[in-house]
Specification:
8 helices, six-stranded antiparallel β-sheet, 40 strands, elongated, single chain, mainly beta, four-stranded mixed β-sheet
Amino acid sequence: MSLKEKLSGLVRVPFVTRIVDQIKRTSKKQIAIAFSSVALAVASVTAFAALPDIHSSAGSVSVLSPGQFQYDVTDSELSKFISSNDRLVTAYGLSLKAQGKSADSDSASKPIKLTLSESEKTFTSLKETLMLSAKLNKHGVPEDYIWESSDKSVAAVDETGKVTPKMNGTATILCTEKNSGAKAECTVTVDTVQVSSLKLSKSELTLALNKTATIKATVGTEEAANKKLKWESSDEEVAKVDSKGKVTAVSVGEAVITCKTTDGSKIEEECKVTVKESIELTKMSLNYIDIKFYGLGCTEQLELLEFSPSNATNTSVIWESTNEAVAVVDEYGVVSPVDNGECEIIATAADGSGVKASCPVTVSGVVNYVEVAINYEVVIPDNIDVNETANSIVEEADKYVGWLPYVWGGTDLTSGVDCSGFVCAVYQKFGINLWDIRTDLIYAGREVSLEEAKAGDIIVYRGHVAIYDGNGGKIHAPTEGYMVTHDYGIGNYRSIRRVIE
């Protein structure tokens, strides 16, 4: 049947009936929605007379453009007709099938919805990441996604949907499909171990103009996920601070340097900085003219005795030994003997003035051990309480501090002792015999570390021995000219021996 016959048939029979009948006879045509309303050029009075039949058969009529129809492009005659007519009439309510598929007008009108691969996420580590993916409920719609975070300091998101946690808190990741305006969200919670304590190496600092000093910060929580710190100055015109705590004096005045945690724990510490006009040292002297050590195990404290001018801005010094094989000095000026010989301990002004002071040191009486036995077993009486006896040894040794003199070869707790004689005599008070290995106490019992050391242990040096007080110090008979002494440091020891188990 020609197209002309197809169209003329539409005006002689009810509209819907003809369209349905035509589709049934045309298996190749894939017409999604029934159409009608011939172009005005081919319409006639007869066609208008048929409108009542159209209305009664189809129920309702709406006008759509040709682009909304599907048809078989191989039907050239039908294609020409559709392309030459701008308006077609669709009769709603028809359920038409073409090639076994039904038109689904409900799906066409279904609103566009956006969903994400995750709707919520909790991070317990800052090393984690989350890759979000978005999906629309309709196919064929162009997709252009925009990703945003409600709080970038808690969690950031890049243009691909990759989420990275930053600090503890909650943030919302929002995804928007640009073309349709559809949106979807994912709630992100960051819950990691936070810093519990923060300590600065200085609470107050005095600097001369243009000088620098570094404040060290210690984070007390080793397992904290974020240990980064933020440094700030209350007045950068007085003192500036960099990201590592280095302070630079800019002008005379006062400022407060604040160190803050950045993991959300909101912990901060302060250091008050005072900047003064630079007044350098011109002269200084030490509290010792010289130091002489006999044997090992003793220490001496060096410090400034006098300095000028008295209003010098910076009076701190830097300590060094000219021969660390003979004696060493720590940052606080504590000098410890190492071996026989001579050296000097030098103090240099830290203000850059170059002023120095020195103290000669002589070490003698250091005896090398002759190794004869390993871990000599000491017999401990059965009737003693081990813990009680260990503490009692320290209490006993402390009774002789300040009055019992050092006597070379001495073993008497009433008239005088040397270092090993003192240790053996104190232990003898509790029935423990160390006299047989008096000169080889390094082999008594077993060796323990400083962390394991307890009250009553024996500290062995090169040519010297002492009793450990249990609190980082020692009681001993140091050298000629000294009484039994209780020092609150142990120095460079050779071994710590545990006799009482």
